Amino acid sequence: MLKQGLQQKLQQGLSPLQIQTIKLLELPTLELEQRIKKELEENPVLDEAPSSEETDDGEPKNVSLSDYSSQDDSTPSYRLYVNNQGKDLKPQYNTFSVKESFHQNLEMQLGYSGLKDEDRTIASFIIGSIDDDGYLRRDILSLTDDIAFRLNIETTPEHVEQILKVIQEFEPVGVGARNLKECLLLQLRAKEQTPQRRRAEEILENYFEEFSRKHYDRIMARTGMDKDDLKEAMDEIVRLNPRPGGQIDDSYVEQAQQIVPDFILENKDGELILSMPKFSVPELRVNKRYADLLMNSASSSGKRGKDAVAFVKQKLDSAKWFVEAIKQRQNTLQNTMKAILDFQHDFFLDGDEAKLKPMVLKNIAEKTGLDISTISRVVNCKYIQTNFGVYPLKYFFSEGMKTESGDEVSTREIKKVLSESIEAEDKKKPLTDEELVSVLSRKGYKVARRTVAKYREQLNIPIARMRKEI
Hints:
The chain has helices at 2-13, 16-25, 29-42, 102-110, 117-129, 140-151, 157-167, 180-190, 195-206, 208-212, 216-223, 227-238, 288-297, 302-343, 345-350, 361-368, 372-379, 411-423, 433-442, 449-458, 464-467; strands at residues 46-48, 81-82, 96-99, 256-259, 263-268, 271-275, 284-286, 383-386, 389-392, 400-402, 408-410. By secondary structure, it is α+β, with helices and mostly antiparallel strands.
């Protein structure tokens, strides 16, 4: 009951305008266009305004709802009109081909899964909980509670587990696993079975701890495998991908996707000029025919007249919220990008990655006065076009740490130095994580061994033993 009460309280706390704004904030430019077109199709009160300042019959395109209010209508006076475009009615986009993101690929596969509507909603929520490495690092019970609380869908852990099994059949193989053992087993079981793979599966299924600790003698003693059998099985395991979401190679075919930058940044003699590209969405206004219907129905008697008033008023309110949400979306995006631009000013001058400062969502939330969750929605799936490339906004966020000299650097810079150090190593005697700590320390970066291991894994670089060349 407490959960239901909290949920009702949260739902009551968000106005229709706030809900609409939250939904629109997450949409990149192209999807926003489609969303507005869909709204035009579904809401007869919304209409496309002519490009001229006045309509053909001389009436102004700026229609006030107060002109079409019934006597008992509580709708406030509101100028339902927004101009979404500049003088160029059909601007030509600078479109860029980018690879489809890991999560977008999963959502696309979900569309072909055959799941019914409610199960598909649950599956989409599970996909959103999968991290960038491809793992679901949350227990099924907490997911079930979240699905009830956030989606208002009552389900069971067993049912959520069944839907997860469907997702685990998606590409790349191993996605949706809850731990490394499950990830590797999913991949092995998807392959054509051979004696070597069956032995590899036996090791992972029954002797994973021994395998993790490299207790190979113990595995041979308990399974009856000889050294050759073990080596063949280990070769099968080593070929598997421990990070199905993070490793992008030829085995994982990503589909190209056209994107339109949400922001354009120009450097004019050292002055950074930020703009948002125009999008080809018609200007929105009240459809006069339906506004007249509302006014005329006010004097009608009986249930039919009241139903007509209620219907048109609902559509008018919906149009009002939609138009205002678009305005708020644009303002929020612009304020957030300006804060990012201010924070990372030195980087945006020339694109030098070393000039990127450590920056987290909280930094931008504090600069804009917006909630962290709002900043997260703004930066998700948004891009900026610069003189030196097109970047997702997420690119500019990273944790930081201090060097021995006291300068703060981003984790991206440390990863770059780490990667370069490994590339330069003697492959016959590759550097261990402990040795890499010393190498980074000599270069001024004080990093713990576990941090080196984490960054190495994020860079998809195997441990020293796996990098050794004969």
